[in-house]
């Protein structure tokens, strides 16, 4: 499993529901309004389900590798400038803020590599209140169900909000 295989699996999962390629391209270009983007939420659930089925067919080491790549993608998005665009201005408890921002980063990843890269390059392309709760730990939960234990997190890249200290102005 490498980064390209990771993104190919996500695209294959999208293809299982018709791709929504044009809409996701417009999203990456910043030309899809939040109202228009809502159309992606329902098929996204099926995409995650399809991705889960694919992960369930992989050997243990491949599931772990997928989780490591996902964790690094979520870590890369764990930035204050992206947080400020998604939910930074809202007053919520620290715990719910952490969860919400993790789920918003999950949405960015599940939309595919083009949107992921677009948000990394221009955080203003991130949408507020668009979440994908199930992707963040999908591989870990599948691994736990198949093998009876949870995948240990990579010590270098944590998915939890605020883990990317440099991107939050901390050292």
Describe this structure in words.
The chain has 171 residues and is mainly α. It has one domain. 60% of the residues lie in helices and 0% in strands. It is built from 9 helices and no strands. The longest helix is centred in the middle third of the chain and has 18 residues. The relative contact order is 0.18. The model has no long low-confidence stretch (mean pLDDT 91).
Q: Domains counted in the coordinates: how many? A: 1
Straight-line N-to-C gap: 31 Å
H-E string: HHHHHHHHH
Task: Give the class from helix and strand content and strand pairing.
Answer: mainly alpha
Strand element count: 0
- Which radius of gyration do the C-alpha atoms yield? 15 Å
Overall geometry: globular
Helix content: 55-70%
Largest sheet: none
On the 0 to 100 scale, the average pLDDT is 91
Residue windows where pLDDT falls under 50 for at least 5 positions: none
């Amino acid at each position: 499993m490498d980064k390209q295989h990771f993104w190919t699996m996500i695209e294959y999962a999208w293809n299982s529901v018709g791709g929504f390629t044009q809409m996701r391209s417009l999203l990456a270009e910043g030309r899809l309004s939040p109202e228009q983007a809502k159309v992606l939420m329902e098929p996204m659930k099926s995409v995650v389900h399809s991705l889960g089925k694919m992960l369930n067919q992989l050997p243990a080491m491949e599931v772990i590798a997928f989780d490591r790549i996902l964790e690094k993608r979520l870590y890369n998005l764990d930035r204050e400038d992206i947080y400020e665009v998604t939910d930074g201005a809202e007053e919520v408890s620290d715990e719910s803020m952490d969860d919400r921002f993790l789920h918003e980063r999950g949405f960015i990843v599940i939309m595919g590599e083009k949107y992921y890269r677009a948000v990394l390059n221009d955080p203003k392309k991130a949408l507020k209140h668009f979440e994908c709760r199930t992707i963040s730990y999908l591989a870990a939960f599948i691994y736990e169900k198949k093998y009876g234990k949870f995948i240990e997190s990579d010590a270098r890249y944590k998915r939890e909000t605020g883990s990317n200290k440099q991107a939050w102005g901390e050292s």
